[in-house]
Structure formats: structure tokens, C-alpha cells
């Protein structure tokens, strides 16, 4: 005669709980087989999450560096493009102006002045260049163009040179305005230099270049001096106007070396940024692999465990079915 030691209701509850537990384990193990990840990460790490937290902290730091390198690379590339544009504007005009004193007619000097006035406006536009909505030569005042309109600059220079009667006096007055804190430095609408940007552990990118840099200031100086010819400076005195044009050409030619030096300095920063970005990317890839391996499930072990759990569940179903078929007649046999 069969004998059940527990009441049918109690046994049914026990079997139901076991079934629920087995189904939960099967679901978790099936997820491990599908995802390759441990269903219970805490158990897999034996409660020690410190290695995983360290990896996550490093990945967060690298993400911050990635943002910094992208912004810095964008800014330096825009600065290099602007400098190349300035050099392109200055090159042929400077050569033409240098020949004006002995070779150019009054009409030609006038044309040089008109050309310089247009190029000054273009040069100011290049210095006011933006990258991603940020003025790249404005220092900390990234939302403000560093320079006002070229015509405002020429008006200020005309005032500074008022009363000058020869090319030397005009040139001196313009040179004083560009070097005076109350002149070009006051015309500058940007802020102070940007702070160095961290681009990787222990390395920073120097992004301090502004429109106050001598290379930019001296280039604008040459354009502005020649552009004053188109504003009628020195009247009809062709000799002095031709002399002024030649002086402007000398300034534009002389500023070439400083532009090259500035481009080289920015180029060194660009190379540093690119190198840091490559190293950061490699480190991020390695940490990503380590992160994925932390708490990874053994697919063979998980599949084997899944089959065992399924077998246990099937056995439990058989026992449950047998218990559910018990009756008083069966019990009394």
C-alpha cells in the first residue's frame, strides 16, 4: 500500500514552489546561454564588484577624454584653416605692394588699396571663424566673434592717423594703435586664453591661441595699413601713398614667418591630440573586452546546466502529475 507522509495540500505547495524555482533558474540560465553573460553577476564575482567598478570608472574617464580630444581637434583644425586663408590673402598682395613705390601709377595704388580693403574684411572673417558654433580665436568668450567689422577698425585707424602728412607718420600712428592696449587690444572682443584641455592621463592640449596673437595682429596690421589707401589717406600725394603701400607690403611679407611659426605650434598640438586619441581608443577597446569578459558565462557549462534543469523540471512535472492522480481508493489499496 502506498503511503504519503505529508498531506496532499502541503505536498502540492512544496511541488509548486520547486516548480517556480526551477522555472526561474531555467529562465536565467537560458538568458546566460543567449547573452553569454552571467545571470547573477554578484554570485559570479563572489560579491566583489571592485574590479568591475574600476573598469567602469576608467571607461567613463576615457569617454571624457574622447569628448575633449574631439573638441580640441575640431578647434585646432579650424585655426589651421584660418591661418592658411590669411597666408593666401597676404601672399600675392604683399608682393604687389612691395613693388608699388617705384612701379605703380596713382590709379594702381588706388586699386591696391581697394583690394586690401576687401582682403581686410575677408581676413577679419577668417579670424572670426567658428567650429561647432564656438569662435576659435576668441579664447574663453567662445560665443563672441573676437573682432568687430573691418570698417570699424579702419575708422579707428583714420582717427589715430588724423593730421599725418606723410607715409611714415601714418605708418607710425597705425603701428601705435595695433600695439596700444587701448587700440587693437581694446578692439578685440574675445576673452582670455582657454585653459589647457586634458586629452589623456597626464597630458593636456594647449588651446591658448587668440586673435591677440602677434602673428594674427601683424597680418591684420599690414592689410589695414594698405586698406587706408582706399579711405583716402594722404589725399592725392601719389609719392607718399605709394610709399605707404610699400610699407604695407613689407608688413604683410614680414608677417609670413610669424604665421608659419604659429601654424607649426598649432600643428604640434594637433599631433599631440591625434596621438592621445589613438591611445585612448586602444585603451577603451582593451577595457571594453575586459568589461565584457567580467562575469561572462561559459556557454558550454550554461548549456549543460540548462539541460539538467530542464530534466529536473520534467521529473517534477511527473511527480506532480502522479500526486494529482491520488484518490482515497488508491490510498486504501
TrEMBL record:
<keyword id="KW-0282">Flagellum</keyword>
<keyword id="KW-0969">Cilium</keyword>
<protein>
    <submittedName>
        <fullName>Flagellin</fullName>
    </submittedName>
</protein>
<keyword id="KW-0966">Cell projection</keyword>
